[in-house]
TrEMBL record, chain A:
Its main location: membrane. It is a multi-pass membrane protein. InterPro entries: ABC_transp_permease, BCAA_transport_permease. It is found in: Cell membrane. This is Branched-chain amino acid ABC transporter permease. Keywords: Amino-acid transport, Cell inner membrane, Cell membrane, Membrane, Transmembrane, Transmembrane helix, Transport. GO terms for biological process: D-alanine transmembrane transport; L-alanine transport; L-isoleucine import across plasma membrane.
From TrEMBL, chain B:
One of its GO terms (cellular component) is plasma membrane. The keyword Transport does not apply. Keywords: Cell membrane, Membrane, Transmembrane, Transmembrane helix. It is a multi-pass membrane protein. GO terms for molecular function: branched-chain amino acid transmembrane transporter activity. This is Branched-chain amino acid ABC transporter permease.
Amino acid sequence: MSVFLQQTVNGLSLGSAYAVFAVGFTLLFGVLNVLNLAQGAVFMVGAFTGLELVRLVELPLPLAFLVAMVTAGAVSVLTQVAVFGPLERRGGHRWMGLIASLAVARLLVAIAQEVFGTQVLRYPSEPWMEASWTIAGVQIQGLQLIVLATALLVMAALAVLLRATQTGRAIRTMAFNPNVARLVGVPVQRMTLLTYFIAGALAGAAGVQLGVLYNAVSPFMGETILLKGLTVLILGGLGHVPGAALAGLLLGLTEVYSVGYLSSSFRDAVGFGLVFIILLVRPHGLFGLTTRQRA
Amino acid sequence: MSEWLASYENVVALVLLNGILGIAAYLMLIVNRFSLATGGLMAIGAYVSVLATMNFGVPFALTLVLGGVTAAVMALLLGAPVLRIEGDYFALATLAFTEIVRIIALNWESVTGGALGIVGIPTETQIWQLALALAALTAAVFAVHRSAAGRVLAAIRGDEMAAAAIGIDVARARLLTFVASGAICGVAGAFAGHLNFFIGPSDFGMIRSIDAIVYAVFGGLGGVLGPVVGALVYTVLPEMLRFSAQAREILLSLVIILAVLFMPRGLISLNLPLRRWLPRRRGQRGKLAAGQGVAAE
């Protein structure tokens, strides 16, 4: 039983970071109908920004976390302004958007390699990260608690923004229908940029979280999380933001349980197996809703 | 000439192999499906043929057939349920397939050698065989385009609903195309497996699928020569940028971004001087333009 509880604790902290990333990824899909495969690279940018701020500038981690979010958001906006925006105005085919986003990801990874090299870097250890408590045979690390708490905080802030503000209403109108949004006076261009910023900032936040949790940052770390993001996008119902948050937690738990009870090597196969089956059985995802309920 | 060919033998082999893969991706793109199954199907062809060579000493020609047939059967089994799904969801389902194949190859150590892969494979693949295969494939697709089946494909590409309305069995045509594309990937995998001494799971991942699509889109979807030209340019370009591994990646990704932005119809839409010298049949111009119009839609 305590093994099960231990796995649950581990799964929840891992899954909460997945959820943060996946919520941003899902927001882009739900609001702008964009499958942005460069999100993983933006995640990596966030992880490196946080790392360098802590290592070189010696900022405290919470501050570095916020700056990393803003930087990743800015990079995400930049990709929209430089590549995805012009492509859309030219009426590029959807496939072109996919290919362009992959090329942007490749570009960011190549630049990161040039700047930071290819070796795995680590966040410097801090006392609270090492702290751990044992409750009823279950070890809870300070690190896991912080990741879980920041994840909940970030997602709560997003929920407030989307549900309780004028801006959120505008974004949700765009998710419903961009033409309607334009007609009722939503500044579509500005809201598009804001959506890219939010998605990038969430990816950056997840980058710092997983960078600290795994204690490893490398230019290639975006690929794995991108695949997880795709899995969660489908599990959560393609564009359904609360569904993505829930599915992110679920994926974290599933992975940890499958390592605990099956075998670590098939951890990734479990996620993809789920994706495959869900796409066949419920093409609109586990929590799939109609388009009008997106975001 | 022969000296030049020897020093660039690997590049030439890659250009030809990638041309074959580009055509496999092209076939799926012209029936409106963004298939990321290429890498997975190729892996199946590669492992089946290499295992046949290593464990049973099957002659090379037969392993090519074996790789192609196995991948085609797999494409049939995969395609029957998955082809119903549309758009991004189809892309994601085929991506999941490719990743599952990779994970199985990575973990089924007793058969595939796991992450270490299979080493000491006899290198049977010759340049002339690849060239012959690519030429035959190009000719075959060209012939299909001019046949009744080609008109069915063109109708599906133009408007699926209209095609269905005039009595075309869209699902069946698409499944057949997927199986053909799978067979091509399988044979390409078998060639790739016998090209070097080694195969491993990371040789056939998502990147392989994406690159194949990039060849086709980069070259142009207006005709079968598009993916071949795309594979040529996209494979030779990195070799010319060999002076720095990172600068190469940066330049390559910039090239793709610029190509997507400024050449949405691909390389073959460029009005190269060469094209004026090529004999042009009557009416071909109109046909090409119509095909490209759909591709750029």
